[in-house]
From TrEMBL, chain A:
This is Extracellular solute-binding protein. Keywords: Signal, Transport. It comes from the Bacteria. Belongs to the bacterial solute-binding protein 1 family. Residues 1-23 form the signal peptide. It comes from Thioclava electrotropha.
UniProtKB/TrEMBL annotation, chain B:
InterPro entries: ABC_transporter_permease, MetI-like, MetI-like_sf. Residues 133-348 form the ABC transmembrane type-1 domain. PROSITE patterns: ABC_TM1 (PS50928). It is a multi-pass membrane protein. Keywords: Cell membrane, Membrane, Transmembrane, Transmembrane helix, Transport. Belongs to the binding-protein-dependent transport system permease family. The chain crosses the membrane at residues 12-33, 132-158, 170-191, 222-243, 279-298, 327-347. This is Sugar ABC transporter permease. Its main location: membrane. SUPFAM superfamilies: MetI-like. It holds the Pfam family BPD_transp_1. The keyword Ubl conjugation does not apply. It is found in: Cell membrane. It comes from Thioclava electrotropha.
């Protein structure tokens, strides 16, 4: 007993001493970018700057490889071990918010009023996450190819129509100079599918799930518009305009640069690399298939875990990290779209007249988020399989019916993704 | 016996304890948890409480029916035919999305056969499960006998007293030591449809007459390609088990056979094979169980595609449990897989019992 008292006294004394000396709250932070040197250098620098800028909080970083990041967060949440600050892929946020992993940011939304819509993670009317950047997809083309094939250069105001797009692909195929007219990145079987291809379906007038009620996919994913999308999608592969699902990942990486493909449907994160190798590359907006030209929005974003004991501190850090200079720094290093216009002006690629400025416009004008529902994690997998199956030659209507049934069954299994 | 197991052998129990604890924690407990989960609507993550749903997950998975579609007829009552002269049938959604037949809602076509003007369509609530089950069975039926036979052949070849024989043993055993994920990645390059090693080799051997095949991208060749690669990968392991069996056969038996003037085949048939009986049972059961658990190759090489031609049960269990966050559905598949493997092992045990 005596020993216990002594120990307890010592502990109390020690804590008292520490808090008197430093008065610092420790915050933990998880980040998905392990393995990317440039990225982790910037993240470390932001954290260092933050820790030096004040003495109330001290952020410690733990990085994970992207492939296992979501699993790690899920495992940590089940074990009750979440960090204070964590980053997450935009479309998965509603699932984590619904599951109770996250708390709404204790920052007024006004603070982010200049941010691109795709960078704001709003679920259930509350802001849960904020991104330092957004990503955008564009049609990569060479000016020389465009000229040779006699194609009109599409603009944001006047994008290609479906017919123009298809005749461009046909012209590229006919020229006989390319293995395939367009590289869609079919080898990248994962979130790339819904991110890159769902906008096509949306531009046709279909969708993944009813976005008003989020309780069914019937008529949206298997309606006439969706069937039209499916038939068009399948024709790209049956007509040999695009390499199919067994495309070599290496060909997707370098195919456009090597001149194997006339066009490439690719993300802005590959733009800097491509510009280095292809002098006359230009980035064209998505074609309009009838309901406006659309691309996917929402990339990685920061949020605060529900179990954080110091959400104010975490919020301080997020405010600190979302300063323009860091947005610009990330953009310069990784080619991502900075979240604000003022930050864009500070970057070498996105300032007015910069080589990638077009992406800022794309993101602002065309970006549509993937369905904002906890069920998206499942919907995404269903869409991946449907898009791959149709590309592989499956019956379009049956495949879309089956995907619809799967999404509806999942919604039912989860009681409509409501909290009960 | 009893006393030696319980009291007089404390040290033995102490040594066994860590193993028993680990097996309890990581094999036996999860097994019962899996059975339990499969009777609920357990999800990977969800704020809502888990509910007991009885056999609902199994019903959803196993539900299967046959429906008939009548060929379309024109106004004169004649069957409408397409360009190839085949009768045209209405779409399946006229039944599965018809308010008059609610019992077929949410079901999809697995396969159909046509007789005259009627198409008999087998529909199931969970077609992917049935395809996965069928593929897994094909995989096991191909891999088990072929892999066991090749392994035995290799074991006989390397069970000789030649100089440098260990080099061959090492070579044959090498794929077993390399991680299956690495092996799968390498074979993806070998099978590549564009400039894969296999296509290049076949084209070279046939003086350019061979048309390149997209081995993993073609629904007709994908499963076969994975079967071939899987046999190659694990054959060394079973070769070693056969080899250990071969080396337990007393040389005197072979000497006696030689004195009797038996031929090589007779020696194998009447000396080697009977002596390998127990090894054969072991090898067959191990291969069968391993083959049912096929996962890594699928995950790395095809992800179940193209067109579900390489879906397998374990891949689906993982896909559902983690990908689709449906732990209950994944558990139900695991339980069914367990029952299948259990029944097959028992049949194999019975067929190869001591008579």
């Amino acid at each position: 007993m005596k020993l216990l008292n002594v120990t307890a006294g010592a502990v109390i004394a020690a804590t008292g001493f520490c808090s008197a000396a430093f008065a610092t709250t420790d915050l933990t932070m998880w980040y998905h970018g392990a393995g990317n040197k440039v990225e982790s250098k910037i993240v470390h620098q932001i954290i260092d700057d933050f820790n030096k800028s004040q003495s109330d909080y001290k952020v410690a970083l733990q990085s994970f490889p992207q492939n296992s990041y979501n699993d790690s967060v899920t495992a940590a949440a089940l074990a009750g071990n979440l960090p204070d600050i964590l980053d997450m892929d935009g479309p998965i946020m509603p699932n984590w918010a619904w599951s109770g992993y996250l708390q709404p940011l204790p920052i007024p939304e006004d603070h982010f009023k200049d941010f691109l819509p795709g960078t704001k993670g709003v679920y259930d009317g509350k802001l849960y996450s904020i991104g330092l950047w957004d990503a955008a997809v564009a049609l990569y083309a060479r000016k020389s190819t465009m000229k040779e094939l006699g194609l009109r250069t599409p603009t944001l105001d006047k994008p290609w129509t479906k017919d123009e797009f298809m005749s461009a692909l046909e012209a590229a195929k006919k020229s006989g100079k390319f293995d395939y007219a367009i590289d869609l990145g079919m080898s990248d079987k994962g979130e790339w599918y819904p991110y890159a291809f769902l906008p096509f379906l949306q531009s046709f007038g279909g969708g993944l799930v009813n976005r008003k009620t989020y309780d069914t996919a019937e008529g949206v994913l298997n309606g006439d518009a969706a069937v039209a999308w499916g038939n068009w999608w399948q024709s790209l592969f049956t007509d040999k305009l695009a390499p199919g699902t067994s495309q070599d990942p290496a060909a997707h990486e370098t195919g456009f640069i090597d001149g194997k493909y006339a066009f490439s449907w690719n993300g802005n994160w590959n733009a800097v690399k491509t510009m280095d190798k292809v002098d006359d590359v230009e980035f064209l907006p998505a074609p309009d298939f009838g309901n406006g030209s659309k691309i996917g929005g929402a990339s990685w974003q920061f949020g605060i875990s529900a179990s954080s004991k110091a959400p104010e501190g975490a919020a301080e850090f997020i405010k600190f990290a979302t300063q323009d200079k860091y947005l610009a720094e990330f953009s310069d290093a990784l080619g991502l779209i900075p979240a604000t216009k003022s930050a864009a002006q500070m970057t070498k690629n996105y300032k007015t007249g910069g080589p990638l400025a077009v992406f800022y416009g794309l993101s602002e004008a065309q970006a549509e988020k993937r369905p904002v529902t906890p069920g998206y994690v499942v919907d995404s997998k269903v869409f991946q399989k449907a898009a791959a199956d149709i590309a592989d030659g499956a019956d379009v209507i049956d495949t879309l019916d089956s995907a619809t049934d799967q999404i509806n069954a999942d919604i039912k299994r989860n009681d409509g993704y409501k909290k009960n | 016996m009893r006393s030696s197991l319980t009291s007089a052998n404390r040290a033995g129990w102490a040594f066994a304890l860590p193993g028993i604890v680990l097996i309890l924690a990581f094999i036996i407990t999860p097994f019962f948890l899996g059975v339990g989960f499969s009777l609920t609507n357990q999800r990977l993550i969800s704020p809502n409480a888990t509910r007991f749903v009885g056999l609902e997950n199994y019903r959803e998975m196993l539900n299967i029916a046959v429906v008939d579609l009548q060929a379309k007829t024109d106004s004169a009552g004649k069957t409408v035919t397409d360009a190839d002269g085949q009768a045209e049938f209405p779409r399946l959604r006229s039944i599965t999305r018809n308010p008059d037949t609610p019992q077929y809602h949410g079901m999809q076509e697995w396969f159909r056969w046509v007789s005259g003007d009627t198409a008999h369509v087998v529909i199931a609530s969970d077609v992917v499960f049935w395809k996965a089950l069928l593929n897994t069975c094909i995989f096991v039926l191909m891999v088990a006998p072929i892999q066991a036979a090749i392994a035995l052949g290799l074991a006989l070849l390397i069970n000789q007293k030649l100089r440098g024989i260990t080099i061959f043993r090492t070579i044959y055993f090498m794929p077993v030591v390399v991680s299956i994920v690495v092996v799968s990645l390498l074979w993806r390059f070998i099978y590549s449809g564009q400039n894969g090693l296999l296509n290049n080799m076949l084209s070279f051997l046939s003086f350019g007459h061979f048309q390149p095949v997209d081995w993993l991208g073609n629904p007709h060749t994908a499963l076969g390609a994975i079967i071939t690669m899987s046999i190659w990968q694990a054959v060394g392991f079973h070769m070693v088990i056969w080899l250990s069996g071969l080396q337990t056969i007393p040389p005197t038996l072979y000497e006696a056979a030689a004195i009797e003037g038996s031929s090589k085949w007779q020696t194998f048939r009447y000396v080697t094979w009977p002596a390998l009986r127990h090894t054969a049972v072991l090898v067959l059961i191990v291969i069968t169980m391993q083959a049912f658990a096929i996962f890594a190759q699928i995950d790395v090489m095809t992800k179940g595609g193209p067109l579900d031609s390489t879906q397998t049960l374990v891949f689906q269990a993982v896909q559902r449990g983690y990908g689709m966050q449906n732990i209950a559905g994944g558990s139900a598949i695991s339980v069914i897989l367990f029952l299948i493997v259990l029944v097959i092992s028992m049949i194999q045990r019975w067929l190869t019992r001591e008579r």
